[in-house]
Amino acid sequence: MRARLNAVRHHQLFFMGLHYRRGSAPVVARRGGGRGAVRKPPPAPAWRPNADWRQLPLFGQVPRDYSRLDPADFALASPWLAWAKYLAYQLAEARGWGRGIRFAVNRGLALVLTGYVEGDVIRHTETFAPLRALDLRFGHVVTVLEEMGIFEDDSEPSFEGWLAERLEGLAPGIRSEAERWTRVLHDGGPRSVPRREGTVWLYLNRVRPALLEWSNHYDHLREVTRDDVVTYVKTLHGHQRHDQLVALRSLFTWAKRNGLIFRNPTSRIKVGQYEYAVLQPLVPAQVDRSVAAATTPATRLILALAAVHAARVAQIATLMLDDVDLGNRRLAIAGRVRPLDDLTLKLLLDWLEHRRRRWPNTANLHLLINNQTATKTNRASNHWISAPLRGQDATLERLRVDRQLEEALTHGPDPLHLAEVFGLDEKTAMRYADSARALLEQSAEQQL
């Protein structure tokens, strides 16, 4: 013993009773033979508190600063909190929220419902920063508050911030007219329907360079002449000229219709027909690198849906479990029923097994889910769908185009066949047919 003690050069000290060794702590047996701590009982059923009487406020609701609230001051006995916890428990059971999410949601509810009285409204701008600072699952807390009917989303839409940034630097008169035109595109008007937000972004981004240049000389759009438009368009070539001229014609046509200008300076300026390049097929090495990058069951299924069934990213993200018919080997993509080939069927079964094991209690009915959407009901983002193959030569979009081009090369450049198989627009089908015809003619010339 003395020899051992002499060999000791250092020793780790612990507070008595706090030194934990693996296997030394007693294991609490759970009902049914499970291991670990006993699961907490569910909260008692609770409903919206009855407001027999209440003191009417003399003034409107005063904004609250939740960041100054001490956790020791949480009103844990509030009947509103009891109702919120019961609703949170029901949502957690229905949507498969884990233990960590449930704990964070209960803490967040205790924070925002402290001091709450009948008639108050919990606002987005007052609760977002405090809950995020404490990492208390803001989105899940909002879901419970919306179920209670006491949440108000007063946050500024992202479109407003983007619009203000894009209009920065324009002359005041031109800025006002461009903003009105953009809002009509976005919201619609008496004689126009709302456009998709992506289309609105493209149109304003395309007219912005011209408007910035004209803002150095003019104050209003009515001062812009046809010579100004022609001079500016001469500096553009190819698709840039086509795209910007189309957007400028939309702006000045709207301004003329609403009496903001006297003459349309873009009239009688020919846009010209856009000449598309011949689509080129992918080489096997590019496809092999994308296949090697697909290392998860979800990524393999996504790759197959794009490369075999020519599905777009948004179509893949919106697929529901009901769109899959394993018994009849059918798959509905964007409303069109397609047969399931052996490869897609195998990858689909692998993903469904992984999905069942990874998220057994999820209530999300979308086919493809991840850690963020498994506890919700919304679909996965386009970014998550396309991220694994981003940076590859054969991206999901390139694989989709290659599949449709391959169909045209194999079965002949028939636009009617392509439109029937993939549900393409007639102009898109004709473009694929023209590219296939050019590639076949080029191959025939090389063989001579």
UniProtKB/TrEMBL annotation:
The protein, known as: Integrase
Keyword DNA-binding carried by entry: yes
GO MF assignments: DNA binding
InterPro entries tied to this protein: DNA_brk_join_enz, Integrase-like_cat_sf, Integrase_recombinase_N
Origin organism lineage: Bacteria, Bacillati, Actinomycetota, Actinomycetes, Kitasatosporales
GO terms for biological process, alphabetical: DNA integration; DNA recombination
This protein's UniProt keywords: DNA recombination, DNA-binding
Keyword presence, Transcription: no
